[in-house]
Amino acid sequence: MMTGTQEMGDYQTVQTLETFGFLPKLTQQEVEAQINYIIAQGWTPSIEHEHPSRAFNHYWTMWKLPFFGETSLDRVLDELEACRRSYPDHHVRLLGYDTYTQSQGVCFVVYEGRG
Fold it and tell me: Domains in the chain, ordered, with CATH?
Protein backbone atom coordinates (compact mmCIF):
# COMPACT_ATOMS: atom_id res chain seq x y z
CA MET A 1 0.00 0.00 0.00
CA MET A 2 1.41 3.36 -1.00
CA THR A 3 1.00 6.39 1.18
CA GLY A 4 1.53 10.01 0.26
CA THR A 5 2.75 10.67 -3.26
CA GLN A 6 3.07 7.75 -5.61
CA GLU A 7 6.63 6.90 -6.62
CA MET A 8 7.12 6.91 -10.38
CA GLY A 9 9.68 4.75 -12.04
CA ASP A 10 8.81 1.09 -11.67
CA TYR A 11 7.08 -1.04 -14.27
CA GLN A 12 3.72 -0.86 -12.49
CA THR A 13 3.44 2.92 -12.45
CA VAL A 14 5.11 4.08 -15.65
CA GLN A 15 3.10 3.89 -18.83
CA THR A 16 5.23 2.87 -21.81
CA LEU A 17 4.50 2.72 -25.51
CA GLU A 18 5.99 -0.72 -26.14
CA THR A 19 8.37 -3.39 -24.83
CA PHE A 20 11.52 -1.39 -25.59
CA GLY A 21 9.99 1.48 -23.59
CA PHE A 22 11.66 0.19 -20.44
CA LEU A 23 15.08 0.39 -22.06
CA PRO A 24 17.15 3.46 -22.88
CA LYS A 25 16.21 5.09 -26.19
CA LEU A 26 17.51 3.18 -29.20
CA THR A 27 20.47 4.76 -30.95
CA GLN A 28 20.39 5.30 -34.71
CA GLN A 29 22.63 2.24 -35.13
CA GLU A 30 20.26 0.11 -33.02
CA VAL A 31 17.26 1.28 -35.06
CA GLU A 32 19.14 0.39 -38.25
CA ALA A 33 19.99 -3.04 -36.81
CA GLN A 34 16.31 -3.65 -36.06
CA ILE A 35 15.34 -2.65 -39.60
CA ASN A 36 18.03 -4.92 -41.02
CA TYR A 37 16.64 -7.76 -38.87
CA ILE A 38 13.11 -7.15 -40.20
CA ILE A 39 14.41 -7.23 -43.77
CA ALA A 40 16.60 -10.31 -43.15
CA GLN A 41 13.59 -12.21 -41.80
CA GLY A 42 11.63 -11.39 -44.94
CA TRP A 43 9.09 -9.46 -42.88
CA THR A 44 7.14 -6.51 -44.24
CA PRO A 45 8.08 -3.14 -42.72
CA SER A 46 5.21 -0.81 -41.89
CA ILE A 47 5.06 2.59 -40.21
CA GLU A 48 2.34 3.96 -37.94
CA HIS A 49 1.94 7.28 -36.15
CA GLU A 50 -0.33 8.82 -33.53
CA HIS A 51 -0.51 11.94 -31.38
CA PRO A 52 0.72 11.25 -27.81
CA SER A 53 -2.66 12.20 -26.33
CA ARG A 54 -4.29 9.36 -28.30
CA ALA A 55 -1.49 6.80 -28.30
CA PHE A 56 -2.89 4.59 -25.54
CA ASN A 57 -6.58 4.44 -26.46
CA HIS A 58 -6.74 4.57 -30.27
CA TYR A 59 -5.49 2.53 -33.17
CA TRP A 60 -2.50 4.22 -34.72
CA THR A 61 -2.73 5.61 -38.25
CA MET A 62 -0.74 3.81 -40.92
CA TRP A 63 1.79 5.82 -42.90
CA LYS A 64 1.22 4.77 -46.50
CA LEU A 65 0.80 1.06 -47.20
CA PRO A 66 3.13 -1.56 -45.73
CA PHE A 67 6.38 -1.82 -47.71
CA PHE A 68 5.78 -5.27 -49.22
CA GLY A 69 9.01 -6.88 -50.43
CA GLU A 70 11.17 -3.95 -49.27
CA THR A 71 14.85 -4.83 -49.00
CA SER A 72 16.40 -1.37 -48.66
CA LEU A 73 17.38 -0.08 -45.24
CA ASP A 74 17.70 3.44 -46.64
CA ARG A 75 14.18 3.39 -48.08
CA VAL A 76 12.69 2.43 -44.70
CA LEU A 77 14.78 5.09 -42.93
CA ASP A 78 13.67 7.70 -45.50
CA GLU A 79 10.00 6.84 -44.91
CA LEU A 80 10.41 6.99 -41.13
CA GLU A 81 11.93 10.44 -41.47
CA ALA A 82 9.23 11.57 -43.93
CA CYS A 83 6.54 10.50 -41.46
CA ARG A 84 8.33 12.33 -38.65
CA ARG A 85 8.60 15.51 -40.76
CA SER A 86 4.91 15.35 -41.68
CA TYR A 87 3.80 14.71 -38.08
CA PRO A 88 6.53 16.16 -35.81
CA ASP A 89 4.31 16.05 -32.73
CA HIS A 90 3.31 12.38 -33.21
CA HIS A 91 4.86 9.15 -32.00
CA VAL A 92 6.19 7.13 -34.95
CA ARG A 93 6.63 3.38 -34.71
CA LEU A 94 7.96 0.68 -36.99
CA LEU A 95 6.37 -2.73 -37.33
CA GLY A 96 7.63 -5.87 -39.02
CA TYR A 97 4.84 -8.13 -40.23
CA ASP A 98 5.60 -11.83 -40.49
CA THR A 99 3.55 -13.10 -43.43
CA TYR A 100 4.08 -16.73 -42.43
CA THR A 101 2.54 -16.41 -38.95
CA GLN A 102 0.39 -13.45 -40.04
CA SER A 103 1.37 -11.49 -36.98
CA GLN A 104 3.73 -8.74 -35.89
CA GLY A 105 7.26 -10.04 -35.53
CA VAL A 106 8.50 -6.76 -34.09
CA CYS A 107 7.03 -3.39 -33.15
CA PHE A 108 8.82 -0.46 -31.56
CA VAL A 109 8.67 3.32 -31.32
CA VAL A 110 11.36 5.07 -33.36
CA TYR A 111 10.41 8.68 -32.57
CA GLU A 112 8.46 10.02 -29.62
CA GLY A 113 6.34 13.05 -30.36
CA ARG A 114 5.97 16.18 -28.29
CA GLY A 115 2.65 16.15 -26.65
Answer: 19-111 (3.30.190.10)
